[in-house]
Amino acid sequence: QLQVVESGGDLVQPGGSLRLSCAASGFTLENYAIGWFRQAPGKEREEVSCISSGGFISQYADSVKGRFTISRDIGKNTVYLQMNSLTPEDTAVYYCAAALRRYVCYPPESMDYWGKGTLVTVSS
Q1: Is the Cβ–Cβ distance between 59 and 122 less than 8 Å?
Q2: Residue 113 CA to chain centroid, in angstroms?
Q3: What's the pLDDT score for residue 22?
Q4: C-alpha dihedral over 41, 44, 93, 75, to 10 degrees?
Q5: HSE on the CB side for 113, CA within 13 Å?
Q6: Of 41, 64, 94, 122, which is least surrounded by CB within 10 A?
């Protein structure tokens, strides 16, 4: 069964850090673009970051540039999202999604596999 599973969401204070993980099973991440998306209550889903198949290109939303870093460990078949300097505006359910042989993760509807999400809450 091909799937991705997110983990690492938690309650964190403003200014804090979290690392989210997206573990793939049933397929090899090397050939897939992996995107991180988030959806806050009452808001549209937005793409946060994307790493292309082959790992050549990493992209970030303007709202997270300089604070978030996407990376991958092929040996562990896992993609990470390191999130620093978190603000309450980062509060959302974070999803990862995979798409075969892609350079971008847009549009979201084109992604092949989605996880169920992990909740990140930034609050004092």
Answers
A1: no
A2: 13
A3: 98
A4: 180
A5: 20
A6: 41
Q: What residues contact residue 71 under an 8 Å CB cut-off, 6+ apart?
A: 51, 79, 80, 82
Going by C-alpha positions, the residue among 77, 66, 86, 72 that lies closest to residue 18 is: 86
Residue 11 contacts residue 67 (beta carbons within 8 Å)? no
Q: What's the confidence (pLDDT) of residue 43?
A: 95
The label of the residue with tokens 């850090």 reads 17
- The tens digit of pLDDT for each residue in 7-56 reads 999 999 999 999 999 999 999 999 999 999 999 999 999 999 999 999 99
CA distance 17 to 8: 11
Q: Are strands 118-122 and 92-100 parallel, antiparallel or unpaired?
A: antiparallel
Tokens 């938690």 sit on residue:
10
